[in-house]
Specification:
alpha/beta, Glutaredoxin, five-stranded mixed beta sheet, two-stranded antiparallel ribbon, 4 helices
């Protein structure tokens, strides 16, 4: 399990149109929002990523970079970018399932074609949303077993405003006896 205020796993992978992504040296002032999504086959992911695309500038104004990542290859990732008409959001691809599991993501098996007629990969990761500090420690994390009921990006932007104004630390860090 990832722990707040502790180093996250390393994360390096190719992106569409933005060169290689390496979390270790992403170079943001306040951190990086990493949105792990299920893949092209997921219509809920398309809607969710459309919302993140609308918030890229809001995060950037607060010194936070954004990236969406899945296990899809380059072709399926490009299809997702085209589907949602993304122009600002970085998209990483070829996330290994071993790396997904290292980040605490759940792995699902294919159920065939989805409601939009696209075949699910044999194995893929379920969604996760993380905010990682420039020092590569976990500030915020949410992982899911299903594609439904995800955190709202507008609330995360508002939470960032509060955290910045109040120098609010990452929470959930206690590991002692209970």
């Amino acid at each position: 399990m990832l722990m707040p205020r502790q180093k996250t796993p390393d994360l390096s992978l190719p992106t569409l149109d933005h060169g290689a992504f390496d979390l270790t040296n992403d170079g943001s002032e306040r951190g990086t929002v990493i949105c792990f999504y299920r893949g092209l086959h997921c219509p809920i992911c398309a809607n969710y990523l459309t919302e993140l695309e609308k918030r890229v500038d809001d995060f950037a104004e607060r010194g936070v970079k954004t990236i969406a990542i899945s296990s899809d290859g380059e072709d399926r990732t490009r299809q997702m970018v085209d589907r949602i008409k993304a122009g600002k959001l970085r998209f990483g691809f070829d996330l290994s399932l071993e790396k997904a599991r290292e980040w605490g993501l759940y792995i699902s098996t294919s159920r065939g074609k989805t409601s939009i007629g696209i075949e699910e990969p044999a194995l893929f990761s379920e969604p996760g949303l993380f905010m990682v500090t420039p020092e590569q420690t976990l500030y915020y994390g949410s992982v899911q077993t299903m594609p439904f009921v995800r955190p709202h990006f507008s609330e995360l932007v508002g939470a960032l405003d509060f955290a910045i104004a109040n120098d609010y630390p990452a929470r959930g860090e206690y590991q002692g006896a209970v």
